[in-house]
Amino acid sequence: MSHPDPRQAPTLLVDTLKNFATLMQTEVHLAKAEMAENISRAAVGIAMLVVAVILALTGLNVLAGALVAYLATTGLSAGTSALVVGGGVLLIAVILVFVGKSRLTASALEPTRTLHNLQRDATTVKGATDV
Fold it and tell me: Per-residue DSSP letters for 10-21?
């Protein structure tokens, strides 16, 4: 069995440091890409919340109109139809609020791939140093 030449140690150290620097740069690029993706998901969630608020206001307006129409008449046709429309709009608004809110949770915005890669890298480096 041959022993490694001690004169190669500086070269091995430089190669190791270069590889480590490349690995860190790759991880930073991955983290940036993942955060950009998460920011766009958050933007979609915020847009859904804005649409939900607009629909809720519209629904409340229709429901108010329905109540006025219902009270103004003794029949149910105009008021009941306005209540159905207002209730449907509010139902859509509630669904959009829950979908938008789910896109804004901390766990949905967490850079999971980057964290997984960093844990894997740490394990690999630890395994390499336990020679």
Answer: HHHHHHHHHHHH
